[in-house]
Amino acid sequence: MEVRDAPAVTEKRDPLMPYVAVTALSHTGLIRDHNEDSLVVGPWTLCGTVTENPQTLLFPLGAPLVVAVADGIGGQPAGEVASALVVRQLAAIGPSLDSEEAVRDALKACNHAVYAAAVGHPELAAMGTTVAGAVVLAESLLAFNVGDSRVLDATQDGLHRVSVDDSPPLPPGRRTTSLITQALGGASRFSAVTPHVTTLPLSPGDRYLVCTDGLTDPVTEDELDSLLRVHNDGRAAFELWKAAIEAGGPDNITLAMVRIGE
Questions:
Q1: Where are the beta strands (DSSP E) in 61-149?
Q2: Which DSSP state fits 42?
């Protein structure tokens, strides 16, 4: 199911029940002519389109909740097709992602699905996408990625990267690169992936940022940390997007703020 500009908060909650607040947006940026990013939040997906404002959804804490972004590989065909395929598959199987093994298997299945979708369709050959996200469980969070989209832990001690960039080593003085060492799809022949998955403890008040490199390439992690120290939820998402736009908006920008309420 896809949603365009869903209501800001659509679900009433028991004030005594722990919950997950997810605030997300997706934007083309200032240079690209279309959006190849996709997003999944629980059963909701946003594929290749733009949110006019940050959107916030609330979920009870307990059952597995998947929140992820997928960034179609630029310079290759149909990146938006690959990213949409992956988030839709994650939305469908999200409630079953209750362990590291289940997440790894799901990402490997997504990789197979991207390659299978291109069979017999030359216009889709070598399409691919990165993916990064989190599965929120009752007492822990499973952070995962393939490629260079990121998951960041926004603690009181500062912003900490919990995903692992699949990129070659950078030369001295260089902070970013467009090269990646693995993705879902992205080659003319099938290539297996080794997903990065890690389990983190979860407590009320914890916050995580899931985003594509359209945010982290133009905006340093120090700048992101400064913004997240003073803003939360919708305001945080807006200020992060604004920082990327003010830095030139060179790529599609998709992000999701995950906050554990109490």
A1: 65-72, 128-136, 140-146
A2: T
Residue carrying the six token digits 């090269």: 179
Q: Is the dihedral of CA 239, 22, 194, 163 positive or negative?
A: positive
Distance of CA 44 to the CA centre of its chain: 13
Q: How many CA atoms lie within 13 A of 120 on its CB side?
A: 2
What lies within 8 Å, CB to CB, of 154 at 6+ separation is: 207, 208, 209, 225, 228
For the stretch 213-257, pLDDT in tens is 999 999 999 999 999 999 999 999 999 999 999 999 999 999 999
242 φ, ψ to 5°? -60, -40
Handedness of CA 208, 34, 130, 95 (dihedral sign): positive
